[in-house]
Fold:
Amino acid sequence: MWRLPLAAVAFGVLAAAAPAQSTAGVSRFTVTPSTTQAGGHPTLDLVVAFEPATSDVRGIVLHLPAGLTANGRAAPFCRGGQLVSDLCPLTTRVGSVTLAGEALGFQAEAKRNIYNLAPTGAERLRLGVPVFGSFTRGGVALSLPVTARPGDGGLDVTLAGPPREVAGYPILIKQVGFRLQGTVRRKLKRRVRRRSFLTNPKSCQPATTTLEISPYDPAAPVVTQATAFTPTGC
Structure:
């Protein structure tokens, strides 16, 4: 019965400011590609774990490795009205976000799909996450722009952090997971074909992902960690 409230918490609705329960301390940050083949198309799993569980996560930024590219037109685009109603076609799905946390002494996990949206301006991608949907009354959804870094051209993904309470009850975050698919299926000329969404760097140098966690206190330092995998088969 905790799935819907935690899902809402995970993606930034029903928020009200409350004192932080603990300073964000990252106990584990991993980036695991399904394949390390240089130029291959990995499903990418990123996990951020906090110890102790925390409520002090205002925002998360993932600086993906230079050379890791994404094809924003591999999957069809979900329209904005479909996203807020949580009615995006499965053909537009490109990943998922999961959140594990604690509320009122209970532990629960929420999961939401990530869908492909039409990018705007200089964006390389725009990802969408429906929080909850209603066909008749509308719903709530988040858009996650993905931009290219000046200099090395790597992709940056920004996620809004969960609020610290719902209806006066504190929420503690234990783990956030972020998955992007390496390939997607798309119907072309009446045939379903698999198209690459992510592509590994073509160099066999370490591919580093940097994590930034912003706390609610603007005077507090940003928490950073980095991890790397090394492409193979060059």
User: Anything to note?
Assistant: Residues 84 and 139 are 5 Å apart (CA to CA). The chain has one domain: 3-15+28-229. Confidence is low (pLDDT under 50) at residues 1-22. The first strand starts at residue 26 and ends at 33.
